[in-house]
Write a structure and sequence with these properties.
This protein is an alpha/beta fold. Helices cover 44% and strands 17% of the residues.
């Protein structure tokens, strides 16, 4: 849990982890040089499972990688310092990865609350490797605060990249997906707080530009496209269905989709649904 000047919400986040029904964990809070009451709040805890790592302020990617390097467990669960984990989150995620020896990551659905939460649309929750790959070609379908992933695998693919700050998780999921299975739990096991002071809200434009570059890279990787084709595919996937031309969509269906590295019924049903919207919702 990286935090920087998170005094307003840090206690609720920490309390939600310490109250988990699964108890065999350590909670690493990486304080990225906070100058508010965050250090004082963290010092008030006596639970031996809580470890506070203090850094000079260097940004979230440095804090994330430091926490990753210092963690003693083989699996890493993430939670932002303004979000809340439901009590059975770790228990259910640990059970899920324990049942799947090929798993490198488990993620869950999230409930949104706070400023503007009623405006958040419900995107289809990806369950298969194939549909996750397709979604990664134009957007990040996994909420960072919901993940549980293998530490060794994350380190092997480079961890969080400093040059992709503000979209560092989007890139990591694409690299991890090549290494093994993602287990998806549709239960809303994390409450994701929306507020004007969040890192993502403050850096929306930078985040959008980086996400576009990462999405194009995923198009190249997961659909075996050249750069020009990847840019075209990414733009088409980002466009609203009403703004897609039939000619462009047919190109995507016949050239890009068949080359997707993995295939699934979930992906096929989404492509059919999008095609239906193009035909019947004009």
């Amino acid at each position: 849990m990286p935090v920087w000047n998170g005094a307003d919400f840090i206690a609720a986040a920490v309390n939600s982890v310490l109250a988990q029904t699964f108890t065999n964990f350590e909670l690493l809070v990486v304080d990225d040089g906070s100058t508010d009451r965050t250090p004082e709040i963290l010092r008030s805890y006596s639970d031996p499972r809580l470890r506070v790592l203090r850094l000079d302020h260097a940004g979230i990617v440095v804090a994330l990688n430091h926490g990753l390097s210092q963690a003693r467990a083989a699996w890493i669960a993430r939670l932002d310092a303004d979000d809340i984990s439901e009590p059975r989150r770790l228990e259910w995620q640990w059970q899920a990865v324990s049942r799947n020896p090929q798993a490198v990551l488990c993620h869950t659905a999230a409930a949104y609350f706070g400023d503007g939460s009623t405006l958040v649309g419900a995107a289809r929750f990806p369950r298969s490797r194939s549909f996750t790959a397709l979604r990664l070609c134009h957007q990040c379908p996994i909420v960072h605060s919901t993940v549980l992933f293998k530490k060794a695998t994350a380190l092997a693919v480079g961890g969080y990249l400093p040059e992709e700050r503000h979209a560092e998780d989007f890139s990591l999921w694409g690299r991890l997906l090549e290494q093994g299975e993602f287990v998806a739990l549709p239960d809303k096991l994390v409450r994701f707080r929306l507020h004007n002071q969040s890192v993502s809200q403050k850096n929306l434009e930078v985040q959008r530009d980086l996400a576009r570059k990462i999405g194009i890279r995923h198009c190249q990787k997961f659909m075996n496209l050249n750069e020009a084709e990847a840019i075209r595919a990414n733009a088409l996937l980002l466009a609203a269905s009403r703004d897609r031309s039939w000619r462009e969509w047919w190109w995507f269906l016949t050239v890009c989709a068949p080359q997707l590295r993995w295939q699934s019924v979930e992906t096929m049903s989404w492509l059919i649904w999008q095609t239906g919207k193009l035909i019947f919702c004009r």
